[in-house]
Amino acid sequence: MATIKATRPVLYQNRLYNPGEELPQHDPAIVSAWLAAGSAKETAAAKKPAASKPKAATTSGKARAQGKKPPAKGAAK
User: Fold this and answer.
1) d(CA 66, CA 43)
2) Burial 18-34 (b: 16+ CB within 10 A, else e)
3) Which residues contact 51 (CB under 8 A, 6 or more apart)?
4) CA atoms within 13 A on the CB side of 56
5) What is the pLDDT of residue 65?
6) Could you give the dihedral angle defined by the CA atoms of residues 11, 9, 17 and 48, in that order, rounded to the nearest 10 degrees?
7) Which residues contact 42 (CB under 8 A, 6 or more apart)?
8) DSSP-derived 3-state class of residue 70
9) Per-residue pLDDT of the chain in tens (77 residues, 90 and over written 9)
């Protein structure tokens, strides 16, 4: 989803948004008014880097064949 950024100071719901700040998009009528007036511009949403998932503990083929589960993290050895 694209973001809407202020191109000039915008006072909305008792908050002042400075140029370059992201504006709220929950009211489509206000968003279209900002865009039509030139008070805001639509920018492509920046892709956030995907959070890396922790790798699961691996088990050997023999343990997997016997139905054993990998040890829990933090388990006493």
Assistant:
1) 54
2) eeeeebeeeeeebbeeb
3) none
4) 5
5) 67
6) 140
7) 2, 3, 4, 35
8) coil
9) 689 999 999 999 999 999 999 999 999 999 999 999 999 999 986 666 666 666 665 666 666 667 766 667 776 65
d(CA 31, CA 16) in angstroms, rounded, equals 15
**What is the three-state SS of 17-61?**
ECCCCECCCCCHHHHHHHHHHCCEEEECCCCCCCCCCCCCCCCCH
Amino acid at 2: A
Distance CA 71, CA 57 (A): 7
- Please report, as a single letter, which amino acid is at residue 44: A
